[in-house]
Design a protein that fits this description.
With 248 residues, the chain is mostly helical. The protein has ten helices and two strands. 37% of the residues are buried.
Length: 248
């Protein structure tokens, strides 16, 4: 594996065609998000293990339900239908289709590094989600009937984690090709908003505890930042080697 990443050809393959922003500020920001995300996830996991998260989870969970009738979500009937449709944005079928379409575009336009980066970042994030679910083994909420079909364990929320990784990763690719700062902020804001509403829909539909979603958001942001940071460092290493060759 070390030899693989030390290969100059592989570094060029991974880094070619992707601009990652300011060389000084970007890695600092990414490392800060990575550190904060991991810290928040660990804190939530520790509180969960100690049994101190249940009361807060129940309070937040029931705040989205009609008082005195926990089986009924707040809001009109159409809101429940909207929540089911929103939550599908974070489902594997739609994410895989979106990822395939985006990666296909980059392959057709010969931006192979961008395609590889997207697939590796999102794929590894999905694998991380499934691994952690099996490790923690937390059951789904049992206070109400689930309004969406679920087949896996609860912690962390796979929808929140994978959606955050996927849309932040795709946003980072788009940002890399946008010269306008306002456009970059807009793209990043859309990605964050999508991850937020998908996670919120999981609690609203009764299939996740709030702490599941919060942990998914935190780790998803950390994983996306780690992926972007690795790519940035590879790009910097490649640029440094090119400068050394030009001066020698």
């Amino acid at each position: 594996m070390t030899r693989f990443f030390q290969s100059n050809r592989v570094v060029e393959w991974l880094a070619k065609g992707i601009r990652t922003g300011n060389a000084n500020r970007l890695p600092v920001a990414l490392f800060a998000i990575l550190t904060l995300g991991v810290y928040v996830f660990i804190e939530i996991a520790e509180e969960l293990a100690e049994g101190e998260m249940r009361r807060i989870d129940e309070m937040l969970f029931l705040s989205l339900r009609v008082p005195g009738d926990a089986s009924t979500p707040l809001g009109p009937a159409w809101l429940q239908e909207a929540a089911v449709e929103i939550t599908s944005i974070g489902g594997y079928p739609l994410i895989i289709l979106t990822l395939a379409a985006v990666a296909g575009f980059f392959i057709v336009t010969r931006r192979y590094a961008a395609a590889a980066y997207a697939v590796l970042a999102v794929g590894s994030g999905a694998l991380l989600s499934q691994t952690l679910k099996q490790y923690y083994g937390r059951p789904r909420p049992d206070l109400v009937d689930h309004l969406d079909t679920v087949h896996t364990l609860s912690f962390p929320s796979g929808h929140a984690l994978v959606t955050t990784v996927a849309y932040l990763t795709l946003a980072s690719l788009v940002i890399g090709f946008l010269p306008d700062r306002r456009a970059r902020i807009y793209v990043l804001s859309v990605a964050v908003f999508v991850a937020f509403i998908v996670g919120l829909s999981r609690v609203y539909l009764g299939v996740h505890w709030p702490s599941d979603v919060a942990a998914g958001w935190a780790l998803g942001a950390a994983w996306a930042s780690l992926s972007w940071l690795i790519l940035h460092l590879l790009d910097q290493r490649r640029s440094s080697r090119i400068r050394q060759k030009e001066t020698s």
